[in-house]
Amino acid sequence: MAKAFFRLQKFLRRTQFLLFFLTAAYLMAGSLLLLQRTRLVIQQGSRGTSPNPALALPDEMTGVGLVDPWALQNPRPGARLLVGMDGPQEPALEQRHSPRWLVSRNSELRQLRRRWFHRFISDQEPMQTAGLKAMRRAAEHKGTYMGCFTDDSKERTLKGAVFYDLRKMTVAHCQEACAERAYSYAGLAYGAECYCGNRLPTTAAKPEECNSECKGQKGSVCGGVNRLSIYRVEELRAGARRRRNVIYRGCFRAPDNLTDTFPASLIQPNLTVEMCSEFCSKKEFPLAVIRGQECYCGYPTGRFSLRDGADGLRCSSSTPNASSTARAKYCLVYQTPVQDTRCTDRKFLTTKSKVFVALSSFPGAGNTWARHLIEHATGYYTGSYYFDGALYNKGFKGEKDHWRSRRTICVKTHESGKTEIEMFDSAILLIRNPYKSLMAEFNRKYAGHLGYATDRNWKSKEWPDFVNSYASWWASHVLDWLKYGKRLLIVHYEDLKQSLIPKLKEMVEFLNVTVTEDRLLCVENNRDGNFKRSGAKQKDFEPFTQEMKDLINRYILTVDEALRGRNFTGLPREYVPR
């Protein structure tokens, strides 16, 4: 017995010593690793510091084939912009620390650029948190809870409007959104999705199946997986009715058979716009069409596409010398608060895409808007090389999917450079007027996706520094994609805005997706999406000095020459020079 006890004691002593030794070795290794990482960060910080402390990004954005903008403003005899250059020239040593020197791109500087994007997103977090706190302080919802119902995406009853807020959704927020659009019911699902309509689903579910907590309100239930928590919002509609937006679309030639074209109609003496809009809103149609005392409700279709407007006098009853027969050939069209939901359903690709497609643009060139159009036209989510929480919260679910998953129809990117470009099999290259792009990106940098920069921002020294750095990036981005892109579709933002359906058809065909004309018309009816800037916009504001214009115009001419050299259509005439 004593012998066994002695062996056990000896074993415990050895184990104790072994544990002490391992602990000491672990602490020493951790200390050494910490010291090594600290020294590495200090070294990288000293190397990566921008010569201009006002900018985190200026020197990263240069492109192959561009020269120093200082040289552009002070040209030497014989100097010219180089389009087909394989690499940037080594600058003189005395110019190495000049704030106007544009260094060559490399992997380290591109990583810094990506950090800038992520830092901007993190800067928006306080604003989003403040909005969340304000929402929590809001009054409790006033609607009547109707119960938990099943949700079938193919035959959804609440299909009048759809909203997403994957971070701040609350019951009150959903109710208010539906009430402002004249709906009777608001339904919430997955804790973050809001659906509006005027009819309850037929199939009720067990109360415990609605078990998803609202993303923006702890303790509240916002539906579940394929389950809707539905509220009646009639109490809110009386106050919301005054705020509804009924938009005049114009005077159009009436189709030959109105009853066949429009699924709902009403004949009412002394018919008014409000009466017709109210009727069509209850029927969940986005268009209210008035001809005399007749009211019709429906969607834009091939028979009635709203593309060819007529003179408004043809619809006016006060027009002299206009017979009632002539006026009967035309009708007034109004947009009701109801959302056209024929194209709002979206999903991830069921099988991995064989072709890896980029949606590439310079920041501020309308990439988010183009993604909205592509998603609603094709019915598939778009991905992103980055992660933007604001976009994800508003329904761009591909933001959270890994950009190389190939489950999205295309991938947003602002990257340039040989390595980044050659990862993609093909690309839609979206180009916008650099003057507009620079202002849009400056607005986004200081006011987010939906706001405008203040006068103080525009008048600060950061604006000229921003232009000097980003103008070269605008040009180098296009030049790099022209040089290294394998298969390109060039789309000019201005052409897409002016001729939406034809250009969107080109983009969809490039993505090898077949869509119906009605779906494209639905996209046109919802063309703005949820990312149209709001707020006080400065009128007749010219932020560009003559020096800035000279710099930008040189880059415009370089890009125009490069596009024509690759047998693409040159830049729109409105780009060149101011």
Describe this structure in words.
Residues 142-234, 245-343 form the WSC domain. Belongs to the WSCD family. One of its GO terms (molecular function) is sulfotransferase activity. This is WSCD1 protein. With 578 residues, the chain is of the alpha+beta class. Among the domains are: 145-232; 247-317 and 328-335, no CATH class; 357-532 and 544-565, P-loop containing nucleotide triphosphate hydrolases (Rossmann fold), CATH 3.40.50.300. 39% of the residues lie in helices and 15% in strands. Helix 5 crosses helix 6 and helix 15 (462-484) runs parallel beside helix 19 (546-565). The chain is globular, with a radius of gyration of 30 Å. Residues 37-110, 116-139, 237-243 and 318-322 have low confidence and may be disordered.
